[in-house]
Design goal:
Number of strands of chain A: 0
Distance between the termini of chain B: 68 Å
CATH architecture of chain A: Up-down Bundle
CATH topology of chain A: F1FO ATP Synthase
Number of domains of chain A: 1
Low-confidence stretches of chain A: none
Order of helices and strands of chain A: HH
Largest sheet of chain B: none
Helix content of chain A: over 70%
Oligomer: heterodimer
Strand content of chain B: under 5%
Distance between the termini of chain A: 16 Å
Strand content of chain A: under 5%
Radius of gyration of chain B: 23 Å
Structural class of chain B: mainly alpha
Radius of gyration of chain A: 18 Å
CATH class of chain A: Mainly Alpha
Largest sheet of chain A: none
Number of helices of chain B: 9
Number of helices of chain A: 2
Shape of chain B: globular
CATH superfamily of chain A: F1F0 ATP synthase subunit C
Largest interface: A-B, 19 and 24 residues
Structural class of chain A: mainly alpha
Low-confidence stretches of chain B: 12-27
Number of strands of chain B: 0
Amino acid sequence: MDYQAALSFALPIAVAIAAIGSGLGLGRAVGSAMEAMGRQPEAAGKIQTGMIIGAAFIEALTIYALVGLLLLMGKIGG
Amino acid sequence: MLNSFVFHILTTSETTHKVVEKGQEESHELPNLLTFINKSFAHHYDALIYAGVVSLMMITVAVITYRKRQMIPGKLQNFVEMILENLDNLFISVMGKEARKYTPFLGTLFLYIWFMNLIGLVPFFKSSTSSINTTAALAITVFLYVQYTGVRRLGLWGYFHHLLGSPTDAVTWALAPINLPIHVIGELARPFSLALRLFGNITGEDILIAAFVSLGIMFMGLFGSPIGFPFQIPFILLAMLTSTIQALVFTMLSAIYFFMVMPHEEH
């Protein structure tokens, strides 16, 4: 298998694995935040801010995989 | 006619780019106004040009509002004041009373990134933030300003002490040599994570929209229709949401970085 075929198999799988991981993480984070908001609706604003920042950190990991894909995508079929 | 035209532009701009910059990756994006000027000069600077368009729009609104400010505000002044007040309250909720000093910088950052993200959803415009150069420039600006603020507010020794993990007793002093590289690497990693997060999100959504536009064109092309099916509309709505959230995240993280290098009275 030449490296182009290897890349075209590996890149989507890499992003998919990253997406699975951050999906699990986001599910936990947002779920806990929603629970906390339901328990204390008056603190909803603060919890939401924290949740969005945490979600951005989790999501960034998938985005790094996506950036890797974008960088290496040019090498396929060039 | 329009669909074949757009499709033509989509395909030709890709192929010409493959010829022009061989080996360089070129993302598959929708055509913008500068794509029609078939000069590589304008095409290589499109991020800069659209960033300039956004800044010009913001400066125009700011100047008009500033020149015509009154005690009893009109519609435009009310709107601008509302945005300012909400941003100020947001930063005060993160950084406390001292946020007022940094609201001009952080608020401008938020509005600038937000409008740059949103202008990519207007047909024939492009998000400047889908170029890594723009986001890297913004992130480096934040990084330098945070370092400057740290040295200014804590002093040189105070800032070094902060990088050592603020040691007070024997145990924390013993751990300080381990803390120093961790903190320095942490500081240096911030601009990378800020820039790559914004770039990846906006580029991802632009490519997604472009993929669904070409899918719609191909789908309706089967029936010989002149216009494509708007498959991209749900993704444009999603992109409006992520544009706002990403601008907010960039600004909030910058605000937190500023907050972390400011002296804390409580401990």
